[in-house]
Structure formats: structure tokens, C-alpha cells
Amino acid sequence: MPLSETLFIILLLLILALLLSGLCRHLPLPYTIMLVVTGVSINLLATVTPFAPIPSGFHLSDELVLFIFHPALIFFSALSLDARTLIKDLLPILVMAIPGMLISALLVATGLNTFFYLDFILAFLFGSIISATDPVAVIALFKELGVSKRLTVLVEGESLFNDATAIVLFNIVLGAVIHGESALMDAPTMIYYFTEHFLLGALIGTLIGLVISEMMVRMYHGQQSFVVVASIVAAYLSFIVAEHNFHASGIMSVLATALCIKGVAMPRLSGESTHHIEAGWDSIALVLNSLLFLLIGLTVDILAFAIHWQQLIWVLLAIFAARMISVYGLIPMTTSLFSLPAINLNSRHMMWWGCSKGTIAIAMALAIPDTVVDKGLLLELTLGMVLISLVMSGPTLKPLMRALKIDRLNDDEWLELQEGMEQITTSVNDCLHSFSRLHLLESDMQDSVLQSLNRKIAPTHATLTEAQQLRQIHLHALNVEERELQRLHEIGLVNYYTYLNFKDILRKDKAKSIDEMIRFNRNQDNVNPFLRFEMSIIKFLSEYEWTLNWLIRYQKIRFANLIRHDLAGVLMAHEALLALKQVEPHFHSDKLNIIRKIYRQRLERRQGRLKKLGKQFHDFYFQFEYRLFQEVALRYSLKLITEDFEHGKLSEKIYRRLEKRLDEALKQLPDLAPELSLAKRDDWLDSVPIFSGLPRDVLKKLAKNAHYVSFLPNDTIFNENDRGDSVYILVNGEVNVFQNTGPNQRVHIAELRKGSFIGRHALYDRAVRTATVRAKTYVTLLRLTTQDIKTLSKALPELNQRLQETDINRYPNNT
After folding, report:
1. Beta bridge partners of 772
2. Are 692 and 671 in contact (CB under 8 A)?
3. Helix or strand or coil: residue 542?
4. Would you say 393 and 319 are in contact if contact means Cβ atoms under 8 Å apart?
């Protein structure tokens, strides 16, 4: 078929998809089901009449699905997944995707072999094909009706892992079909093959994701299309490299790449850039899904299903039976065994019924070589099951959700709805009053319009109990925090990582009662065990010089995120307190004061952390604050002029010049220097009086024996009366010096800063420390043992002479 004709048909299909999307608003059918039904109808029309609107050869192929449609759709699904929820529910997802899929394949194979005499290995091949799930229609409906995020992640996460498992199993069984049953692997070999394909695919995807993420961050210069194109390249590159070059799991590779970009690149990009990535992939997914489901319909020959109706009924029953074992048996067992939050029964009903089949199954069936006996039968069964599962689950899911009351509002959602309706009523009143003040609307007409609108949009004025009113106020404060967080993300004060972190915090806060919030807030005064663990790891690693460069980079990223987090937290808590102050005249309760106290404590806690960081890492904090607020001001200005340009308030010439100036100003912002700067060790030695001026070769020999060591705030470097065995140069931070004045009494005698020479008394035989030195901030020191100095002095006359000339009172800042 000529390329021009192919493009013309694709455009016709997209126009048809656009028309159907508008029609679906007035029909009970989901959009994807409508596309499939339309495709089937066109195909049927071409079969029974001479009229063929679409050429007969225009249908799906295995390579078209695997290498064009699937990488992008997997990437889009993974990008929209909540990674935290996915990790929490990873075990139930894997149980459904691996053991559940194998049970389904075996049940289907056993039935076809027993009742329809299909060769078992071919039946098992079909079982592996038809056990792959594709819940596109289900997920779209979940989003439309606003079901819980956990249920959405469970269904979508299972689909991603299930597809990867099904393809690996398909390849194993297909090899046995082609080369004989003796080629079928035993259980240990099969487990190894599964694991190798999964892990290798994930490793390839992770590496590609990290490389593309760094490219997106380092090479981005304000062009929003660059990050979108880079993410498209990442999706297809990871799939092709894993699947074609390394014969690993392409699905796991794309999944890992998407999670890397979401976790590594997007947190370091601006809010506008992440919005463009998400909007770009929304458009790509819409186009591909529209074409894909139309092509599924065009590929299906509905007349051929009548021949195999008995096999199709058995396969359908086997799939539902296997699904029942997974959902009602394996999942509760897994959550109970590993003490995970239980998945409620209604959610499991939805997971059982919403197991529709889709494109991966069709691609695998099409990939069977023509030399395989009964390929036509397997393909027809696959297409039939895909069509039946889509038509069964799509139209019935919404009634099932209503029957299970999943779509009903809980108490919190009802209160949130009332608040939203009140805001709409207020905004409508304000709008009409503004027209009235300008005499554009007569008072009688204003009253008439208000009465009409209030009947349509007024909230339900039900009497709320005090507890419900308090809950409504708490939800209002949380919504104010969420709006402030969105604003901070848009102006660039918080990155994507901090934005997602706070979204998760606010989601958890919404699930807590007032009493739970009080208990949780009280526990926040305790030291976070993760922070204790993190500090202990840092302290352990800082003993090894080879880790210091990595610790510097970690420090830079970690501290920057901590500062962003607490700055945003302060602003969000402040906005919540203002919102609580506005409702105070209308509501008096001791519990309202408790809510206010919770937010005040949050505000003070976050302000305290910022103050502590500013003291411990003064230079870094000052640099970061100096750069951050300049960057926010410039990006906010860029956002404003872009909006003015898009609304026609600025000409393109003026806009481009302003944009160029702001971009140049952003590029000229100073880079963040890490708190710790590791100069050459011989330069540090040359900076202290006792070694200053020594020949460079002598300093270099000393430097080979010097090592960097780090201490956390309040760590003791050495105690008074300890045996002196090392001297130190303070490379970074501040230390306090204390002397004992009596039993359990000491006095602060000095505060030493960067460049100080510490512990010089250790150069003398049988010397003991004359004071205690303790880290005030995070400090890094260059340590030289006295034994190394004395050993080197025997071979270096210049060093030996310098030590002999040393006068203990000659140098300041010594201990």
C-alpha cells in the first residue's frame, strides 16, 4: 500500500475517533468499547457487502503492536502510576501477575486439552497468550468515577507486570512448540529464565532512564518540547534495546525507564516542564489508543467466532475461575502473610470482573509462525476472547460499581462536595454583583438570575454535627494547603519530587481523623528513625576517603530538597492558619483550637528545621537561598510574560526579547558550591603555618599519608587527656573547644573555623590532649597521624628541621 494512502487512512481513522469521542458523551458505552464496536462494524460491512471503506489489508500486526503502540502506552501508564503506592502493593501485584497468570494459563490449557482434544502444548501456548490483561477501558472508567488510587494502581500495576510475565512464558512455550516438547524447560530453569529476563530488562531500562534523565536536566534550556521528545526517545529506545538487542523483557525495561524519569529527571525540572511532559503523553496515549482499538475491531472477523463458540465459552469460564483463585485466594493470603493493608471485598470484585484482554494477546497470537499447526485457530480464539472480554467488562463495570456502591461519596467526600458547591455559589454571586455595580445588570434581573442559578448549584443545607463541621474545616485547611502547593510548584519554588512528597502527605492527612492528627503530630517531636539511620550511614561512610565525593553530591541534592520541603511547608502551614482564622468567627470550639495548634506546631517545627540547617550549613544554606529565590522570581516572571503573550497582550518581538533576557539571567545564576570543598591535600597542608613553605615534593609525600574524615554535629573529635596520636586541619565547618574546670564541669574556650590547625600538641612525645574538641556543625577534617609525620621526618630533612624549630606558643588556634 502506498505511503500516502496509509497516511490518508490513518487520518480518516483519527477523524472517526474524534467523532466517536463526542458521541460517547451521550451513550453508556466507554470510548474504547465504542472504537472496537465501530471497527468490527466496518469489517463486517466489508465482509457482507461489496462496499469496503477500509482496505482489507489494513489491520494489526505483531511488530506494529510491540514496537509502535506498546512502548508508548506502557511508558504512559508507568509515568502516571503512583510509585509509592506501587511499591507498597508490589507483593499482591506480583502474586496476581506471576502465580495468578500461570494458574490461568494452566486452567485454560487443561480445559482445551481435555474437552476439545487440542494438543496440550498448543493449548498451553494459547493459555499464555490469553492470560495477559489490558485494562485500558477499566482504568479510564476508574478515573472518570474517581475510585481509590490504590485500586487503580493494583489493576494497572498488575497489567504491566502481567504483560511482561505473559510474553516471557509465551516465548518459552513457543520454543517448545517449534522445537518439540523436549525443549520445554523444567521448573528451576524456567524460574531462572523468568528472573534473568525480568532483571536484565529492568537493569537496561534503569541505565537508559538514568542517562536520558541526566540529558533532560543538563541539556534543557527552556525549550519545553525538548523534554517531551527526550521522554519519547527513552520509551522506544529502552524497549527496542531490551527486546531486540538483548532479548530481555522490553516491558520491564520501559517500566524502569519511566520510573527513572519520573523519579530522577522530573523532580529537577520546573513545574511547567513536568506539565508539558504529562500533557504531551496524554495526547500521544489518546492518539495511539484511538488507533489501536479501531484496528482491533478491524482485525476481528466476527463471523468466524460462531464456529468456535464452545471453546470460547470454556476459555472465558477458565479465565474467570483462575481470576477468582488469584483475587479471592492468593491476594488475602499474601496481605495476611506479610501484614499488608487488606484489600476490601468490593475492590476485589472489581479486580475480578475487570480482567479484560487486549493488544498484547493479539500481538503474541500474530507472532506465532505460520508453520505452527492450528495458528489460525489460536488467532481466532484470541481475537474472540479479546472482543468478548471488552464487550462484557466495558458496559457492565459502571453498573457493577454502582451496585457495589464504590461510586458513592463517603462522609469526607460529601463534605468536600459541599465546600466546593459553596465556593461556586460565592463566585457566581461575586460575578453577578460585579456586573450589577457597573449597572450592566438590573437588580430585578440579578435576583432572578441568582434564584435560577442557586436552584441548580446551591449546596445541600443539611444540618452538620460539630464533628462534621470540624471535619469540614480540616478538609478546607488541607485544600488550601494543596492549592498553595500547586502554586509553589508552578512558580518553581518546589520541584516535582517535593511536590509529589507533599501530595502524598496531604492525601494521608485527609484519611486521618482529628484525634489521629493529634497523635501523629505529637509523634513528630520524636527523631525520625529514617534520619537516624541516614546519619549513621553517612557517619560510617565518611570514614572512607573514596566516599567523600559521593557524599558531597548526596549532600547537595539532599540538603537542597530538605530546604525546599521546609520552605514550602512553612508557606502551606501559614496559608492554612489564615484559612482557619477566617472561619473562626463562625465556629467556636476547643477542637478548632486543637486544629490551629496542630498547624502552629507544624509551622514552628519547619521553621526550626530551617533555622537549624542554616546554622549547621551556613554557607550552603545562604548560597541555596540566594539562588533559589532569584530563580523563582525569574521563572515566575517568565510564566507571566508567557501568559500575556498567549493572550495577545505582548507582541512576539517583545516577548522573544523578554524571554531571551530572562533565559540569560537564569543561565547566569551562580552554581551551588557544595558545603564541602575538597582541595588538594598538599594545598591544605601548605595553608597551615607548621607546614607552610615546605618544598612541594615534601608536601606531596605528607599528603599521601593524610586522610579526610567527617563528623556529624555534636560528635566528639577527641577528649581532654586522651593520648594525642593525630593532628587535624579543619577543611569545612566549625568546632567548639572545651576545657575541664572541675568534676563534670567544663568551660567553652574557643570556636575554630575553616583552615584551623587542631591537635598540634600530639607532635610531642607522650603528649596528651589539653582540651576537648567537638563538632558544632557537620565538619570535615584532614587527618595526619603523628607516627606518619615522624617516620617521614627521618627521611625528609626539611620536615625534620621544621619540627625541631616548632614553638608550641607560636601558632594560634591550636589544641
Report:
1. 738
2. no
3. coil
4. no
Question: For residue range 297-356, what is the model confidence (pLDDT) as tens digits?
Answer: 888 877 777 788 888 898 889 989 998 999 999 999 998 888 888 888 988 998 898 878
Q: Do 696 and 797 touch, CB atoms closer than 8 A?
A: no
Q: Grid coordinates in use for 498?
A: 517535593
CA–CA gap between residue 70 and residue 67 (Å, rounded): 6
Residue 309, classed as helix, strand or coil, is helix
| SS3 readout for 142-181 | HHHHCCCHHHHHHHHHHHHHHHHHHHHHHHHHHHHHHHCH
Give the bridge partners for 726, in sequence order: 785
Q: How many residues does the chain have?
A: 815
> What's the rounded Cα separation, in Å, for the pair 709 and 728?
9
What are 730's strand-pairing partners? 781
Q: Which three cell numbers stand for residue 692?
A: 607552610
Say which amino acid occupies 423. Answer: Q
Burial class (CB in 10 A: 0-12, 13-18, 19+), 659: middle
Residue at 73: amino acid letter: L
- The CA dihedral of 727, 731, 732, 734, to the nearest 10 degrees, is 40
Strand, helix or coil for residue 673: coil
Task: Please answer whether residues 771 and 738 qualify as being in contact, where contact means their C-beta atoms are separated by less than 8 angstroms.
Answer: yes
Query: What is the tens place of the pLDDT at every residue in 136-175?
Result: 767 776 776 667 788 888 888 888 898 888 998 898 889 8
Half-sphere exposure of 55 (CA within 13 A, CB side): 11
Secondary structure letter of residue 436 according to DSSP: H
**What is the rounded average pLDDT for all residues in the chain?**
83
Residue 775 makes CB contacts below 8 A (sequence gap 6+) with 711, 712, 713, 714, 715, 716, 717, 733, 734, 735
Please count the other Cβ atoms lying within 10 Å of the Cβ belonging to residue 511: 8
Is the alpha carbon torsion for 438, 443, 444, 448 positive or negative? positive
d(CA 499, CA 85): 16
> Confidence band (pLDDT; 50, 70, 90) for 776?
confident
Q: Are 811 and 690 spatial neighbours (Cβ–Cβ below 8 Å)?
A: yes
Q: How far is CA 437 from the centre of its chain?
A: 48
Query: DSSP of 327-360, one letter per residue?
Result: IIIIHHHHHHHTTPPPPPHHHHHHHHHT----HH
Residue 771 and residue 763: Cα distance in Å, rounded? Answer: 15
| Cα distance between residue 418 and residue 472, in whole Å | 9
DSSP letters for 365-432? HHTS-TTSTTHHHHHHHHHHHHHHHHHHHHHHHHHHHHHTTTTS--HHHHHHHHHHHHHHHHHHHHHH
Distance CA 272, CA 279 (A): 10
The number of C-alpha atoms within 13 Å of 308 and in the hemisphere containing its C-beta is 25
How far apart, in whole angstroms, are the C-alpha atoms of residue 625 and residue 559? 12
- What are the tens digits of pLDDT across the range 247-295? 899 999 999 999 999 888 888 787 778 888 999 999 999 999 999 989 8
Q: Which three cell numbers stand for residue 355?
A: 480482567
Query: Is there a contact between 639 and 490 (Cβ–Cβ < 8 Å)?
Result: yes
Task: Retrieve residue 504's grid coordinates.
Answer: 502524598
Q: In what order do the strands lie in the sheet with 707-711?
A: 707-711, 779-785, 726-732, 757-758
Contacts 24+ apart (CB under 8 A), 235-240: 235/71, 235/72, 235/74, 235/75, 236/67, 236/71, 236/72, 237/208, 237/212, 238/71, 238/204, 238/205, 238/208, 238/209, 239/67, 239/70, 239/71, 239/74, 240/67, 240/71
Q: Which cell is 618 given?
A: 551556613
Q: Judge whether 132 and 360 are in contact, CB under 8 Å.
A: yes
